[in-house]
Write a structure and sequence with these properties.
alpha+beta, 7 strands, single chain
């Protein structure tokens, strides 16, 4: 993996992909509905659009509430930074100019179905992980490695849920 041994400041990334035996429009319908994401995640508990918006659009914001055994419970505001109907949907967590993470779904028609990828980048802005690194700077690479592996596992599970729903 490209992030093995990375430090937080390296802004490590992870990506998972799958092929789904369903039309791109069906997969897009699921991917672009962030309110569905908590049903696919052990960590993400709820998502709610803010500012009277009910769907993705550039600049739209949503609040996510999460829970993790090691980090407790927290809330973040994400900003949609990319929205190309049927193709790409991305959001920055926290400050869009210096996010704690960026998440992106990409879709592409392939072999009569849809190729779906989920990508994420950690940093450069501070996150809950920053507090663990501050407390144990000598373990930073291990902390980042473990968290990136969690993200990778969770993204694979999310894509599997989307695949199951889209193919049903």
């Amino acid at each position: 993996m490209e992030w093995t041994g990375a430090r937080y400041a390296d802004m490590p990334t992870a990506e998972v992909r799958t092929w789904i035996d369903a039309p791109l429009e069906r997969v897009w319908e699921l991917v672009s509905d962030v309110t569905l994401m908590p049903t696919m995640s052990e960590e993400l508990q709820s998502v709610e659009w803010v500012d009277g918006v009910g769907r993705p659009a550039p600049g739209a914001r949503f609040v996510g509430r999460s829970k993790h055994d090691a980090f407790g419970e927290w809330e973040t505001t994400s900003h949609v930074i990319e929205y190309e109907q049927g193709c790409a949907f991305a959001w920055a967590v926290g400050d869009p100019d210096r996010p704690s993470a960026v998440w992106r779904f990409r879709l592409e028609p392939k072999d009569g179905g849809t190729e779906l990828s989920e990508w994420m980048r950690m940093g450069p802005g501070r996150s809950g992980l920053s507090f663990a690194i501050d407390a144990m700077p000598e373990k930073e690479q291990k902390i980042v490695f473990v968290r990136m592996r969690e993200f990778e596992r969770n993204m694979a599970a999310t894509l599997e849920h989307i695949k199951t729903m889209a193919e049903a």
